[in-house]
Each structure stands twice: as C-alpha cells, then as structure tokens.
Write a structure and sequence with these properties.
Elements: H1 8-19, E1 30-35, E2 38-49, H2 53-73, E3 80-87, H3 93-109, E4 115-121, E5 132-143, H4 149-152, E6 159-163, H5 168-177, H6 179-182, H7 188-198, H8 203-212, E7 216-219, H9 224-236, E8 239-243, H10 251-260, E9 273-277, H11 280-290, E10 294-301, E11 306-310, E12 313-316, H12 324-328
Length: about 325
C-alpha cells in the first residue's frame, strides 16, 4: 500500500464489504447509527505525516480540519476524536514526543477537548521511509431529520458548487518542503505571502453553510479535486460535466505547480469542499455573504461518463489512485 489515503475502490472491496460500514450517509467516509431518537455520526480520514516541523504541524491540523468538517456537514458539531499513529521503525521517542505536542496543539486550537491517541509500530517498506501514517476518527451526535431533497430525487441536473480553493493543503506543504527549489524561480516574499493566504481557511463554516442549505457535502482531501469529484460520482452512481476553468485555484498554487511539474487538480485539497445542490444560485449567495470564495463548477448527469471540459478539449475523470504530493516529495 502507498502512503496516505486509501483509494476508494480499495476501501470498498477490502474494508467496507467486510466491516459493514459501506452504507454511507454522505459522499465521504461517514457512517451513522440511530440511538434513542438521535443519530451517532462517525467520520474518518487518514494522511501521511512527514517533513519539517512546520509541514508536520500543517498536515496534522489539516487532517483534524477535514474530519471535523465531515461531522459538521452531517449536522453533528464537536464530538470526540480518536487519533491513531502507525510509526516506522526509525522514529525515536523524542520525535514521538514532538508529534504528540503537535497533536495536542492542533486539537486545542480547534476547540477539541475530547480525544485519545493510539500508537503502534509497523514494518516499513522502502517507499514509505520516514512517513508516519495518521488516522483521525471523529464521533458526534445529531438529531434525526428527513433526508435532504437532493438525495431523494434523481441526481441528473443537480449542480456541483465548490467552496474554497483547490490544492491549498498541498501548496502549503510544497512551499514548506521545496523552498530551495521554488525560490530559484519565485521570490521568497511571494512564497511567504502565499503560505499565509493558504493557511487561512474555514472548512467547518463552509461545510455548515452547505449542509444547512440541504446540500450533500464532500470534503476534498488527498487525491485533490479530481479525486473528490470521482467519489461524488460513485456516491450518486452517475456521470458529470465539469468546467475546468471554473475550478477555483490561487495564483500561488498555479505557479508552484508549474515549477515542480505537478498536476494541481490531483493534489491534497484540505480547505476545499464540494456541495451538490438543487439551487446553486442561493448557495453561492450565502457563500458570498459569508466572504467565502465559491463557484459552480459543473452538473451531475445520467450515465457514468465523468467529463472534464477545457475549452474545446475534453478528458474523462479517472479514479483516485494515489496522492500526487508524495510523488513530488
């Protein structure tokens, strides 16, 4: 297995079909159970922790943000969290202490007070050298309510709205890890400005606005916007038409990806959500009022063709295989 998030097809055929958690309530790794008139919601995601202290702290925070946003998207605020760390053999105890401090700081800064941490060692393949595998699972409770109409009616014709910018998380990591290469082509002050801009996102607020509007929310993470779109198509079992030029992306991301020769649409996109809605105009108006960058980037359609349109060119979306960021680093 490669570092980071498992491809959805692997999760489905090798995990969910055996554990009974394949019944998703939204378009991400969320399952639920009714208890006493309320619904307990569980959400989980995973990533690889590596690099400088700045990079590790950023990745830990981004993972907490994604899982927290998954709970919020289901109407379950707060909750308890479990952190699982799988350590390669060469990690020393002082490094584990630093990781624990980073986890505590990330949790505290996000108002997370109930969490536990579990640690185990593992055999380390050469391609995963030095990478700590981290999984966060969050649990929250919400009141039972009717399914949003977007899930009741046929998916064809529904709009896909994007809030936040693509590849934010990966851009911050690449600026942190590849500054020596990037600074030969881009000014250090420009990279510093971009890093600060990238780290100022509010996924929970964006997810809450979409959920309150009755949309189905997908939190983008590893695999990028293309990975998240594919998983949305799998969830709704339908096709889609996507306008590439409408996908939101910061100029800093574009320039960093050009220098490093990497596809920004397949890079970790913590800080970005996708929402499927029947009323894109109303949802976009709410995001504008909240000061959150958002755009309608496509629509769902019948069949299974998931097409990316770029002016006169077309390409078909492919399943998420692996996070591009690990290849670059």
């Amino acid at each position: 297995m490669k570092a980071g998030k498992l491809p959805g097809v692997v999760e489905n055929r090798s995990v969910f079909m055996f554990t009974g958690t394949q019944r998703l309530e939204s378009a991400q790794n969320v399952c639920s159970a009714a208890v006493g008139g309320q619904i307990t919601v569980l959400a989980t995601d995973q990533t690889g922790i590596f690099g400088t202290e700045q990079t590790r702290a950023l990745r830990i925070g981004a993972l907490f943000d994604r899982v927290y946003a998954m709970l919020v998207a289901q109407g379950a605020d707060g909750g308890a969290f479990t952190v699982s760390l799988s350590l390669p053999p060469k990690v020393e105890e002082r490094e584990l202490k630093k990781l624990s401090a980073m986890i505590a700081q990330a949790a505290e800064s996000r108002g997370i007070t109930a969490y536990s941490v579990h640690v185990q060692g593992r055999y380390e393949p050469e391609e995963c050298a030095g990478i700590v595998q981290m999984t966060v699972t969050g649990a929250g409770v919400k009141g039972a309510k009717a399914l949003p109409s977007v899930l009741v009616n046929a998916p064809a014709g529904k709009s896909i709205v994007m809030a936040g910018h693509a590849a934010l998380e990966a851009t911050a990591v690449l600026i942190s890890e590849k500054q020596d290469v990037l600074s030969k082509r881009l000014a250090v002050s420009y990279l510093t400005q971009g890093f600060k801009k990238i780290c100022q996102t509010d996924m929970q607020r964006a997810a809450r606005i979409a959920a309150d509007a009755g949309a189905v929310v997908k939190i983008a993470g590893e695999g990028g916007v293309f990975g998240a779109l594919w998983e949305l198509g799998e969830f709704f079992d339908c096709g889609m038409d996507i306008a590439l030029r409408d996908i939101l992306m910061l100029q800093e991301t574009i320039e960093v990806c050009e220098v490093l020769d990497v596809n920004p649409y397949m890079l970790a996109s913590g800080g970005c959500i996708l929402a499927v809605t029947e009323d894109a105009t109303a949802l976009l108006a709410q995001y504008q009022e909240a000061g959150i960058a958002a755009a309608e980037i496509g629509t769902l359609k019948e069949g299974h063709d998931r097409v990316i349109h770029n002016e006169w060119e077309e390409r078909f979306l492919e399943p998420f295989r692996a996070e591009e960021m690990y290849r670059v680093l």
